[in-house]
Structure formats: structure tokens, C-alpha cells
Write a structure and sequence with these properties.
Blueprint: E1 11-19, E2 32-42, E3 47-51, E4 55-61, E5 68-72, E6 77-93, E7 98-100, E8 109-118, E9 129-132, E10 135-140, E11 145-149, E12 153-160, E13 171-175, E14 180-182, E15 190-191, E16 198-201
Parallel strand pairs: 1-2, 2-3, 2-4, 3-5, 4-6, 5-6, 6-7, 6-8, 8-9, 8-10, 9-11, 10-12, 11-13, 12-14, 12-15, 13-16
Length: 203
């Protein structure tokens, strides 16, 4: 983003395909500003995008060479395929949800660490966000957290319910073929609103 004005859309279109031999965007203050329906991006380094009104994340791949960060200031992020092997994927919806974008059990996020932050929920009952990751950090101010992992999952932190009401703020974590490991040495690993539930299912 060469204009230095965070949140001012530089790319406005239905579908954008970004490709770079190096990085796409440069950190939080140098992210590519978009207002698109569908985002695709491939790089050999970090990918940093600031989306203004929600988008479908089609194929994002950093070629195991960098982290991927997408922040949406308004609207949902519908995740189809975001890959940063051995790296970190960070998704943040300031006013919206992070959802499975294809309605199937295909992997939506593949990375070492996934950092997911949402104002309204991560995944949905009956349509989990599907991951192939090692470590999870997830925060949902309101709404539920519903994630299905392919293998072992280390839960570093899952926090829900700061703005939740009864029945809203549940946590459901499922491992298809492995273990769910609570903790990285922290004293608190999973926190939910008092009236809600945590469900853990190991494969």
C-alpha cells in the first residue's frame, strides 16, 4: 500500500488475483487495502491484506515462506483455502464472522499457528472451520467457536463470551485423527461465558 492510508481501498473489484515473488503488503501499516468480493493471493513471503467489507478468501498461499494476515474491518471472512505451512495465519474480523467458505470438509486453514479473532463467531454449528494446524489461538467476542482439526491440536487459548448471551459463546473443538492438547504452560487455556459450554472431541 503506497498511499499510507490504512482502510482506504486501493483495490476495488469483484475478484482480485495477487501474485508476487516476494511479499504482498508490508505488515499492519503497509497492508494492501482492498474492497473485494473474492481474494486470491500467492507469494514467496508474507501476505498482509486489510479488507474493508468482508470477502471470500479463495486461495491464499505464502509458499511456506511467510505469514498470512487478513483483517476485515466490516463483514465476514469466508475461508476456502489459506496456506502458510510452518508459518502463522492470522484472520481478524472486527465486525463480522470467520466462516467455512466452501461448505465442505476440505481444509480451510493449513499452517503451524492459527490466530483467529472475531467479533461475532468462528465457524458455525453444523459447518465447522476446517484446519490442518499445530497451535490454535482463538477469540470470539460474541458467537461460537466451532473448529475441526485434521490431526493433533495444541490449544494455546480459546476465549469466548465477552459479549455473549445465554447459548451464545460455546466452544466445540474436534480432532479427526489426533489428540487435543490443552496448554502451552499458561494457567488458563479455554475460557467461555459462564452459561455456555465447551465440547472437545479427540479422534
Amino acid at each position: 500500500d503506497a498511499n499510507g492510508a490504512a482502510g482506504v481501498a486501493v483495490i476495488t473489484t469483484a475478484t482480485v488475483d495477487l501474485s508476487a515473488g516476494g511479499t504482498i503488503g508490508q505488515g499492519v501499516n503497509g497492508a494492501i487495502d482492498t474492497a473485494v468480493d473474492t481474494l486470491n493471493a500467492t507469494s514467496n513471503g508474507d501476505i498482509d491484506v486489510l479488507e474493508s467489507d468482508g470477502a471470500t478468501l479463495g486461495v491464499l498461499d505464502s509458499s511456506s515462506a511467510g505469514d498470512i494476515t487478513v483483517v476485515s474491518t466490516s463483514g465476514d471472512l469466508l475461508v476456502q483455502s489459506v496456506t502458510a505451512l510452518s508459518q502463522t495465519v492470522t484472520l481478524n474480523t472486527v465486525n463480522g464472522r470467520i466462516l467455512d467458505g466452501d461448505g465442505a470438509t476440505d481444509v480451510d486453514i493449513a499452517s503451524d499457528v492459527a490466530v483467529l479473532q472475531s467479533s461475532a463467531g468462528i465457524g458455525a454449528t453444523g459447518d465447522a472451520l476446517d484446519t490442518d494446524i499445530t497451535t490454535l489461538q482463538a477469540t470470539a467476542t460474541a458467537g461460537n467457536v466451532v473448529i475441526t482439526e485434521q490431526n493433533d491440536l495444541v490449544v494455546e487459548s480459546v476465549v469466548t463470551g465477552a459479549g455473549a448471551t445465554a447459548g451464545d459463546g460455546n466452544v466445540t473443538l474436534r480432532s479427526e485423527t489426533g489428540d487435543i492438547i490443552l496448554g502451552n504452560g499458561a494457567s488458563t487455556n479455554v475460557i467461555v461465558a459462564d452459561q455456555d459450554t465447551v465440547r472437545l472431541e479427540a479422534g
